[in-house]
Amino acid sequence: MKKVLWAGALGLLMPVIAAAGEYNITVDRVMIDTGDFVKEGIGYNGASPGPVLRFKEGETAKINVTNNLDEATSIHWHGLILPFEQDGVPGISFPGIPAGETFTYEFPVVQSGTYWFHSHSGFQEPNGAYGAIVIEPEGREPFRYNREYVIQLTDKHPHDANRIMRNLKKMPDYYNRKQQTVGDFFSDMSNHGFMTTLQDRLAWGDMRMMKADVEDVQGFTGLINGKGPDQNWTGLFEPGERIRLRFINSSAMAYFDIRIPGLEMTVVQADGNNVQPVTVDEFRIGVAETYDVIVRPKTAEAYTIFAESMGRSGYARATLAPEEGMEGAVPDLREAPLLTMADMGGMHGMDHGSMDMSDSSDMSDMDHSSMESMDHSAMEMEDSEQPGSDMESMDNSGMAGMDHSSMIMPEGGASDPFYAEGSGLVPVAANGGKFLSYADLRAQKPLYEEREPTREIELRLTGNMERYTWSINGVKYEDAEPLKLQYGERVRFKFVNETMMTHPMHLHGMWSILDVGAGQWNPVKHTVSVQPGTTVYMETEVDAPGQWAFHCHLSYHAASGMFRKVVVEGGPDQGNTVGIKAEQDGGDA
Amino acid sequence: MNASKLIVMAAAMSVTGTAFAAGSHGGGHGGGVGEPGKAADASRTIQVEMHDNYYEPEAIDVTRGETVRFVIENRGNLVHEFNIGTPEMHDAHQDEMKMMVEHGVIEGGKLHHDMMNMDMGNGHSMKHDDPNSVLVEPGDTKEIVWTFSSKTTMEFACNIPGHYQSGMYGDVNFESAADTQASAH
Amino acid sequence: MKNLTLTALALAIVVPSAPTWASDMPEDTSGRKDALTVWGVQFEELEYRYSDDDEELGVWNGDAFYGTDDLKFRWLGKGEYAIEEQAYEQLENQLLVQTPISDFFDAKAGVRIDTPEGPDRTYAVLGVAGLAPYWFEVDASLYVSDEGDTSAEFDAEYELLLTNHLILTAGLDATVAFSEDREIGLGKGLSSTETGLRLSYDLIDRTFSPYIGVVHERKYGDTADFAKAEGGGTEDWFAVIGARVGF
Q1: Closest Cα of chain B to A389: distance in Å?
Q2: What pLDDT does residue B84 have?
Q3: Which of A89, A120, A301, C85 is most buried, judging by how many CB atoms fall within 10 Å of its CB?
């Protein structure tokens, strides 16, 4: 008895921070019931999604992970700033957790906000190995709410992820059931005339690209907190309350457009970092991103949280209601978007291939002109990109030189500086109201002092849709050398998306400061979506020694090569502190 | 600020003139929230701090008929408003504030006073000179003297877009329990 | 939210001994660093044919592969089994290696072994296969037989999506011989074509797609003459029913 007391007293005297945030997690085979189908998968503590891990900023997180699988596993703490050995990427941070063993993660919690965790081994994550992290700040939140819910989305597919990967490699359009048909040809013909429609189809056929190639993997059921649309996850509220919804997109592949008909949403946080509040009717959440919004339902009715996938092939649905069992109307899926030539703007490599192959048919004149002008505009785009340029350079105004006359372009003209000018992917709010853009995001409080980047690194996002190979600067991970950064530098990354797909790029261990043209108010993220045919800049303060993963967060893109290892050379332990920036007190004056 | 931008702005302002008319101009037609008072009549001073994006304190107690002098200090990095009104008045006033942000009158931590003085025609301006409200730049301190002549559900709030929605408001509680109506939250 | 310095400090306190020398870092020996290996099996045609002169055939056109983006091993097999005669009119197996030569095309090389009813042949194969502009799947092969005869085969296919599940597939297969091989009935020049039109429905994903269709087979020139000499026809129309199967 006395011993115990002594031990207790010693514990109190220890000058270390108490390990308040301790969790035990088992990695298990679980059954996932979406309401549409039941599928074996991988989960944590017997369920998918796993538990919500809650920490408090300033404490030490200690998580004992026991692997009950018959294969190795790992957990990556997505968005957390921690020592690289704790980052959970097998082969980069640590060797992984062998079958049957327990690994203890231990790291200081140095941030607050909404994050998530997932396996970084094989395809365990798309098979269900994910959960949420909520970190309470040391001080008060810069906003108020009466209650909060985690809204964690995923795109659960009836096929095992290995099978999906194999099918995509065999046949890239295996899951694409939104392709243009004969019926679409006739309806386009009645709207645009025969020649325009024919030329449109020929131009796309010449490139061997599909307008409808927006979602690679269709046929999923959208889940919110593990519940399918029919199972209708429900969060309760009392009218007049402010509710904080912590949206996390844990999908393998699906972007979601989220709205709550009847409620406006005030976005207060993106990727765990507070942003200056912006009130919207709808927002698009990229794979691996998080957005926290505050809503305030004033009347005692049921509100539907409706999350349509970007390609409109599926949706997730949940409900906010004053009591269980209430349901709001569930909207219909809107029409699927189609890519336009503008979204193809970045495809340099293509032109050569199709030039070589085109067996001069009588259409060859047209092909040539359209390909040449495309080339040309792509060049203009590059020329206009001055180092340090701001938003102006991002809107691809150079694309105007392209010959659109023979193409069918979308009407309406919604625009967003983070989409190619004339892109078919620009989202529009269902109620005609405000749709969040990256350009609306402003840091609530700058995390870093603004300074000039020490260098720029261009990363071209590349791939071959027909072969389903994805790469960076044309090189797949298997063939790539690590990307080397120096501790203390501030690197400006220039993403040039030369593919027709959207890529959510995720750098581990260090923040991605997205350039929205707002200087020190640029938002701080962990995942940056780069739309087809666009160039996006982000800056990173290289303040975390070690080696880190850097990849597209679409599961099947990362696995087929769009992945890099980043090595941060130098750092405090080597006495190399050159270039460490001065500390900045960004707090209230 | 060039001439063409001014014209565009003036046009925009006149188009949305109705929004202004519906705004929360506490002055002569305060809708029962009280009226501006004289500093000499103030029974006490309440210090209010503005932060990004919340107030300290987040509730004040007043009694009916009381005149209070508010000293409002902005300790944040962004411009904030202190506006006394009913939730409905705040709601209506938010369109006006949204316009001020959209036209660059309020820009993060800066308030462009030169633009506020512009005459937008039709008697409208972006002066934001209603007596129930002040805009405070980071580091500044401003005052309002207010007489709470009638009791109703009232809040002090910042109507800069997103700020009220994310919780930058405080409750005005009337001290006598019998006097107080149900509060809005 | 902490600022940078506090973060770095906190990290330094908790992991004071963490070695951060790049040279000490683990190499990525995980599977992720290996080339992705894929396999697949597909029967583009697996069908019953009934001809306009009452001939019945069981026909398949299969394909299996294993490999990476850079190198695949592929088996191609074609067969026509005459049901009444209980004999293989055609039985052809190719074993190939395949590697990309452009964004949309692969080169392939290997052997083809024909073991139908009658004389056998072994060929060396060199070919290209891929996706041509306007969505034509094309495949061209050059064959040199163990008898020293050369021939070429050209195959093209186009899929018309009536809906996203109901698909009309048009296919053309043509064989040209550069020298005569009398023994197997192959004359010099354009020897034969097979044209098919199949209407399929994707019933289970793209794993099982039943179809119906018509196939037209025709022999030309000397090849036609050889066939006639042996009492065979030179032109056949078939009604076909079958399924495209892939897994």
Answers
A1: 21
A2: 94
A3: A120
β-sheet with A76-78: strand ranges across: A52-56, A130-136, A113-118, A76-78
Whether A400 has a pLDDT exceeding 50, the answer reads no
3-state secondary structure of C49: strand
Q: pLDDT tens digit string along A301-327?
A: 999 999 999 999 999 999 999 999 999
Neighbours of chain C (3+ CB pairs under 8 A): A
| Domain range list for chain A | 2-140, 179-213+341-357+365-406, 442-569
Task: Say whether the C–A interface has 3 or more Cβ pairs within 8 Å.
Answer: yes
Closest-CA distance of chain B to residue A527, Å: 24
CB of C227 within 8 A of CB of C233? yes
Contact C133 A541 (CB under 8 A): no
Residue A192 backbone dihedrals phi, psi, to 5 degrees: -120, -5
The H or E element containing residue C121 is strand C121-132
A264 touches chain B (CB under 8 A): yes
CATH of domain C4-16+43-246: 2.40.160.40
Q: How far apart are CA A26 and CA A49, in angstroms?
A: 12
Domain covering A442-569 in this structure, CATH number: 2.60.40.420
Tens digits of per-residue pLDDT, A71-109? 999 999 999 999 999 999 999 999 999 999 999 999 999
Domains of chain B (ranges; CATH) run: 3-12+32-184 (2.60.40.420)
3-state secondary structure A43-62: EECCECCCCEEEEECCCEEE
* Integer angstrom CA distances of residue B43 from A375, B33, B62: 75, 18, 10
The answer to whether the Cβ–Cβ distance between A206 and C134 falls below 8 Å is yes
What does pTM read for this prediction?
A: 0.86
Answer yes or no: is pLDDT of A229 > 60: yes
State the smallest CA–CA distance between residue A222 and chain C in angstroms. Answer: 19
Judge whether A2-140 and A442-569 match in fold: yes
Element (H, E) at A392: none
Q: Are A209 and A346 in contact (CB under 8 A)?
A: no
Q: What are the strands, taking DSSP E only, across A336-433?
A: none
Q: Which residues 48-87 of A are in CB contact (within 8 Å) with C?
A: 57, 60, 81-83, 85
Distance CA A300, CA A238 (A): 7
- C-interface mutation test, from A159, A167, A269, A489, most C Cβ less than 10 A away: A167
In this structure, what are the phi and psi dihedrals at residue A7, rounded to the nearest 5 degrees? -60, -40
